[in-house]
Amino acid sequence: MRRIFTNIGSLLSWSEKTQSMEYSKPDRLIVDKERISAIDQQAEKPDEIIDCQGALMTPALIDAHTHPVFAECRQNEFEMRIAGKSYLDIAAAGGGIKNSVRQLRKISEDELFDRSLPRARNFLTTGTATIEAKSGYGLSLNDELKSLRVIRRLNEALPLQLIPTFLGAHEIPDEYQNRRNEYISLLVDEMIPQVAASGLAEYCDVFADKGVFTRDEAELIFRGALENGLKLRVHADEFENLGVTELAAKMGAASADHLLVISEDGISAMKNSGTVAVLLPGTTFFLGKQDYAPARRIWDAGVTTALASDFNPGSSMTQNLQMIMTLACTQMKLSPLEAWQAVTINAARSLQREKIIGSLEIGKNADIALWDVSDYRIVPYWFGKNHLHALWINGSKVIC
Amino acid sequence: MRRIFTNIGSLLSWSEKTQSMEYSKPDRLIVDKERISAIDQQAEKPDEIIDCQGALMTPALIDAHTHPVFAECRQNEFEMRIAGKSYLDIAAAGGGIKNSVRQLRKISEDELFDRSLPRARNFLTTGTATIEAKSGYGLSLNDELKSLRVIRRLNEALPLQLIPTFLGAHEIPDEYQNRRNEYISLLVDEMIPQVAASGLAEYCDVFADKGVFTRDEAELIFRGALENGLKLRVHADEFENLGVTELAAKMGAASADHLLVISEDGISAMKNSGTVAVLLPGTTFFLGKQDYAPARRIWDAGVTTALASDFNPGSSMTQNLQMIMTLACTQMKLSPLEAWQAVTINAARSLQREKIIGSLEIGKNADIALWDVSDYRIVPYWFGKNHLHALWINGSKVIC
User: What is the pLDDT of residues B111-165, one digit of tens each?
Assistant: First the structure.
């Protein structure tokens, strides 16, 4: 199967050759089966010719941090927070992560799959082809495996590509509230080995912050993960700086995420280790806070920086990376070009898949987005509008 | 033509009877021709039965402040602002309102109409049926009349309802830079009388703020407008408090808009006059500022408060009132219910059309939105997603 994309208005992509985002105008792009086989060359015998009608072409978007498997929306907590209720008030009323845990434990795997499916499909509608997908609303071996199996089933059911992360260390579950060491042991001695043996997760993540897991607990969990062949990601420096980013960098984590209160030492550690910063402005926005992660400082220090949605029902109810780009530009002062880089090649790097996705170069997966704009800057600039014209994943057109 | 809407999941609308937003579950809503004729009663001989499939029904949205007639997007200035350029830097590089004025003056009425048409149509896609539409990028008699004629033509060409406002006092044009009194005279003695005589505008607006028009100039322009039968709206208290809100209230303005730096006296004046506050959180967001208009204080003081997009290419490039509701909830701490009131009945009040639009009550226009949600709170909560299921204006289904 050979497809030729013609009449491309412009093409925006990272270039491995120039090590920068390039804005070009190739005459055509050729896809053989699932891969890009040539750019701007003549090609014989196409099975399909796709007229791009002058649209902007970019790599399909990559969302490097999402929590897409949950039972119910939590609009009630959204309303409480607006009314001035604190995190503790909301927790006392049964809200927070533990609310999602109670809801998820109550339903079957099939029911969880059925509820997650339309939400997962919705990522495609705004141009996202690949998401990192965390468990973390189960917090028991069975409920975490149930969540990870749902992630695998979503990956099979949809053209969306899901990269699974085990987040058993999302919160201490109620039944271990006064026995946190026992929960850490459960994680390290039982859950991580069994999750790793199941092949259902590629990464292990820890929410290491004030009121959740400590730096030392994170270290134990990370060590267990590495011993079992899981790679590392981390929720770090969102509320309080506990030195977790430095720890994660030292242990070779693929990414450190959130980073609102990251220190200069943390930035240096990431730079040196190659750990990717995954920034989540949707969360800061959704929670009505004013201090975003210091994206400019992190980027300018030379840390590879991605942007992601943090899609979850409690603190960032959005799946739209176009909107995340607008937030990054208006609130974090990343340039439109940097925002595009952050949701394509840099997001791929945070998922250690920069060899196969994240740019439109020969040999890469044909994950291609076309946009109804004449200029890439218009996507973050004109917000609240879905600019996606069409999407291909692995060379096949996605119909939502 | 009789249409019966059945299988309504829930209906959210202002109720004139209870003077509050009511969340109900009627069995059916009946539309005869262009008006709502009955709710929850039996009806004979429908020409069409519409199965709402359990969707949420609300009044179609109303956008009380937009600048939809312009020649070109200004993504270049968006990029400059992110890079730290000041308003003065951008103006020195040929940017700002005057940039749009130069662009608009260069093109014909037909060309302006052609460019504005798809943008105007885009309001419909997110549930907006009615917009207030300002001129103000012409700043000469001919170019302002050209803009107002385009607004009339858009109103005729689309199901979207446009309510026209003359905004010749948007800026002092370059050719009057050192002769501002002459421009005020031109506005009062020539432009306002001719615009009023043309019947092309219902309101007159003035951008009265630091660096634009003074309070005294605004008073002269308002007086001219009232003498010629135009009603008043005003851009006030966005950058500096010049007492303009108090002036507008005293002169009976229908609305005062922006209000970021409104004083307690301003709030009292609006309360007493019945002038509606039109708040524009999209602008604060787009410009990357942190201090939103004090919506909570204005609302709690008893001032009727609407929300609008301020759609314009320089300072608020959005047309999506669902997104504006999210901004109002997360950044201004309006409740989801208040946000819905602000984009329906309160927006209608700011346009003095609360007798015919803004709620789903008997006798009102059948401007009806259906939403793919089970709970009205989900629309502001789940952001970056278009929740609109379908839209009717004056009883006819809108196809975008």
Answer: 999 999 999 999 999 999 999 999 999 999 999 999 999 999 999 999 999 999 9
B165-183 pLDDT, tens digit per residue, is 999 999 999 999 999 999 9
Range of the domain at A115: 61-350
If asked whether residues B394 and B363 sit together in one domain, one would say yes
Q: How far is B330 from chain A (nearest CA, A)?
A: 5
The mean per-residue pLDDT over the stretch B34-56 comes to 93
Is the same domain home to A197 and A301?
yes
Strand, helix or coil for residue B396? strand
Partner A contacted by B79 (CB < 8 A): yes
Contact assignment for A382 to B320 by CB distance below 8 Å: no
Are residues B291 and B395 both part of a single domain? no
Whether B72 and B41 map to the same domain: the answer is: no
Identify the CA nearest to B201 among candidates B178, B228, B174, B171.
Answer: B228
Nearest CA to B336 out of B384, B376, B290 is that of B376
Distance from CA of A221 to the nearest CA of B (A): 33
The pLDDT value given to residue B87 = 79
Chain A residues with CB under 8 Å of B378 CB are: 73, 75
From chain B, the residues in CB contact with A385 under 8 A are: 122, 318-320
**What is the ipTM, given to two decimal places?**
0.97
The answer to whether residues A246 and A196 belong to one domain is yes
Instruction: Read off the pTM.
Output: 0.98
Domain count, chain A: 2
Helix ranges (H only) for A168-319 are 180-185, 192-198, 215-227, 244-250, 264-273, 281-286, 295-300
Q: Could you identify the residue written with the tokens 């503790």?
A: A88
Query: Does any CB of chain B come closer than 8 Å to the CB of residue A121?
Result: no
A382 neighbourhood in chain B, CB within 8 Å = 73, 317-318
Q: B326 to chain A, minimum CA–CA distance in Å?
A: 8
Q: Is the dihedral of CA A168, A174, A178, A179 positive or negative?
A: negative
C-alpha torsion angle, residues A161, A165, A170, A173 (rounded to 10): 100
| Chain B residues lying within 8 Å of A380, measured CB to CB | 78
* CATH code: domain of residue B35: 2.30.40.10
Domain co-membership, A281 together with A380: no
Burial class of residue A44 in the structure, from the number of CB atoms within 10 Å of its CB (0-12 exposed, 13-18 middle, 19+ buried):
exposed
CB contact under 8 Å between A330 and B287, yes or no, is yes
CATH code assigned at A279: 3.20.20.140
The answer to whether residues B248 and B214 belong to one domain is yes
| Residue A207 distance to chain B (closest CA, Å) | 23
What integer pLDDT is reported at residue A38 of this predicted model? 95
A383 to B318: CB separation less than 8 angstroms, yes or no: yes
How would residue A17 be classed by pLDDT, with cut points 50, 70 and 90? very high
What pLDDT does residue A175 have? 96
Tokens standing for residue B86: 């000041």
